[in-house]
C-alpha cells in the first residue's frame, strides 16, 4: 500500500510544481505586456516632444517649447521607473539577477558572471539554514555491473558518464556554452 502512496505523493508534487510554473508563466506574460504598453506610451511622448520642438523651430523660438517639453520628459522618467519595477518583479519570479559589470542576466545562485567573471557578493540568508544529511555512496553502491571491467568509465556511448558537456577544470561545475568564466568559482574557461 505504501507503494501507491508514494506514487500518489509524487504525482501530487508534480502537479503542484506544474501549476506553480504555469502561474509564474502567466504572471510573467502579464508583466511583459504591461512593459510593452508602457514602452508604447513612451514612444507617443517622444513623438509629442518632437512635434512641440519642430513647431517651435518653425516659429523661430525654440525656447518656447521648453515649457511644454519638460512635463513630457518627467512623465517619461516616471514610466521608465514603472518599467524598472516590473522588470525587477520578473527577475524575482525567475530567480535571476543582472551582472553590474556587463548586464548579463544570470541565476540568483550564480557566484561569478559567466560572461565577464564579476564576483557576486554572497547571498544574505534571512532564515536558519536547513540541515541536510548528505548520503555519500560507498564503493559497493557506485560499482557498475558489466562483463567488461571499467566499461562505464572508458566513455561507452551508453554510459551516463559519456556526456561531453563543458565543465570547469577547477571545480567540476557544468558550464554554459558561452561561458568565459565558471559561475561557481570564477575560474576562466579559456585556458
UniProtKB/TrEMBL annotation:
Residues 139-162 are annotated as: Disordered. Residues 99-119, 168-187 form the Zinc-ribbon domain. It holds the Pfam family Zn_Ribbon_1. Residues 139-148 have a biased composition (Acidic residues). Coiled coil: none annotated. It comes from the Bacteria. This is Zinc ribbon protein. It comes from Cohnella phaseoli.
